[in-house]
């Protein structure tokens, strides 16, 4: 299993200056890798392996590249080819994308050391501090808020300068699956220990057993962001005042991102602790955002990030997470399977065939649960949530906010 730990870093002024220099040299190397690739024959494009083999020659021809650690330089070559691969995948899916462009200084903000060239000293710091050594750069203090587990292997280390001017260090970790908790046997799964999750529009999520978690309220944060962006637009571009205000805007954006991530951590941790199996829709996030007038809120929810966190934590807590086909989960009746078209503003499900009535999102969550069992090749349990939700008891579906659930102890990161 692969995952990462991220810590805020506090380089000294001298080390920060060297970091800035190395960032710029890595940027120049990235741009040269791109130029070299673009100018290779169309029928014989250079591979990552080919360009790694060119590094010694480039270091002799341009001594500035020799200032970089060999593994860090190789990671920069890998970065270009990874971006190239992602671009190809988008083209294959029909997206209208162009070519990889040159990286400006403001675009290139991180350096990765892969396999070697770094050391972690957990004893050198005081209290919650530790130090990381980057070869050819120096030691950097980090706020070591959560120790790296003894059973984890550090595969790579990345140091990044955010647009706010803050530095962060991320450790890419790998853990042997043998030390992870064993997941429940498939045959033990039933409707009482499993849940279907509908990622909603009016609410954040709706579960098949009747819980709704509401959207994170970011209105105050977005109002402040709009205000600070207006202030930025009044400054002279490139002036000291403009740069100071740009950092203010970046910090507000960072605050919003952190608030969303914290919200997702709480919800996903609660789900994998509470249930043996969690079933979610395999959603085309880009298509959802392009089709929705409410794209900003959905983007804040970061569907893919939510599911990624869910899958990562499922391995840590011994829970199954299964993505199912989303088509028709809202239209099909969870009781009889008859599909009924309904516009997005219709929030109730009322089946004209069997008379089953419930909340629209509750019906979708029940369908997701059922499809999850089908995906695993399990029989649908005789006692299901569908049998306990009728037109007369739909009021039992209750809505909670994250803050409320945190107070009760159900959610914890």
UniProtKB/TrEMBL annotation:
Tagged with keyword Coiled coil: yes
UniProt key word Coiled coil: yes
Record-linked Pfam families: Cas12f1-like_TNB (PF07282), HTH_OrfB_IS605 (PF12323), OrfB_IS605 (PF01385)
Domain Cas12f1-like TNB: 303-368
Native organism: Halapricum desulfuricans
Family membership: In the C-terminal section; belongs to the transposase 35 family.
Assigned keywords, A-Z: Coiled coil, DNA recombination, DNA-binding, Metal-binding, Transposition, Zinc
Stretches assigned to coiled coil: 215-245
InterPro entries, per the entry: Cas12f1-like_TNB, RNA-guided_DNA_endo/Transpos, Transposase, Transposase_put_HTH
Chain ranges of the Probable transposase IS891/IS1136/IS1341 domain: 191-290
Molecular function in Gene Ontology: DNA binding; metal ion binding
Any one biological process term the GO annotation gives: DNA recombination
UniProt protein name: Transposable element
Residue ranges of the TM segments: none
Domain called Transposase putative helix-turn-helix: residue spans: 2-32
């Amino acid at each position: 299993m692969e995952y990462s730990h991220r810590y805020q870093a506090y380089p000294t002024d001298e080390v920060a200056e060297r970091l800035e220099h190395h960032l710029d040299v890595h940027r120049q190397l990235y741009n040269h890798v791109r130029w070299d690739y673009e100018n290779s024959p169309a029928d014989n494009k250079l591979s990552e392996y080919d360009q790694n083999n060119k590094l010694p020659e480039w270091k002799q021809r341009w001594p500035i590249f020799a200032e970089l650690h060999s593994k860090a330089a190789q990671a920069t070559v890998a970065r270009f080819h990874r971006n190239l691969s992602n671009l190809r995948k988008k083209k294959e899916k029909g997206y209208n994308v162009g070519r990889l462009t040159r990286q400006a200084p403001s675009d290139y903000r991180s350096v990765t050391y892969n396999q070697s060239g770094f050391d972690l000293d957990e004893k050198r710091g005081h209290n919650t501090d530790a130090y990381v050594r980057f070869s050819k750069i120096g030691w950097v203090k980090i706020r070591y808020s959560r120790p790296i587990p003894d059973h984890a292997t550090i595969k790579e280390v990345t140091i990044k300068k955010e647009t706010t001017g803050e530095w962060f260090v991320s450790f890419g970790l790998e853990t042997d699956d043998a030390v992870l908790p064993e997941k429940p046997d498939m045959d033990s799964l039933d409707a009482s220990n499993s849940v279907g999750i509908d990622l909603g529009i009016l609410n954040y999520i709706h579960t098949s057993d009747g819980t709704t978690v509401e959207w994170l309220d970011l209105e105050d944060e977005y109002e402040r962001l709009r205000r600070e962006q207006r202030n930025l637009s009044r400054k002279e571009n490139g002036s000291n005042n403009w740069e100071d205000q740009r950092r203010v805007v970046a910090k507000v954006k960072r605050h919003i991102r952190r608030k969303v991530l914290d919200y997702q951590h709480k919800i996903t941790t609660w789900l994998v602790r509470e249930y043996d199996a969690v079933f979610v829709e395999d959603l085309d996030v880009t298509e959802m955002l392009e089709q929705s007038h409410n794209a900003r809120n959905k983007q804040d929810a970061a569907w893919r990030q939510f599911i990624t966190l869910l899958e990562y934590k499922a391995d840590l807590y011994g829970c199954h997470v299964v993505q199912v086909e989303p088509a028709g989960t809202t239209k099909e009746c969870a009781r009889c399977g008859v599909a009924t078209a309904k516009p997005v503003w219709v929030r109730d499900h009322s089946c004209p065939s069997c008379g089953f009535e419930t909340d629209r999102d509750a019906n979708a969550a029940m369908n997701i649960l059922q499809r999850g069992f089908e995906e695993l090749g399990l029989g649908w349990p005789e006692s299901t949530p569908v049998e306990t939700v009728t037109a007369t008891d739909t009021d039992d579906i209750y809505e909670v906010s994250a803050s409320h659930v945190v107070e009760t102890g159900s959610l914890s990161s």
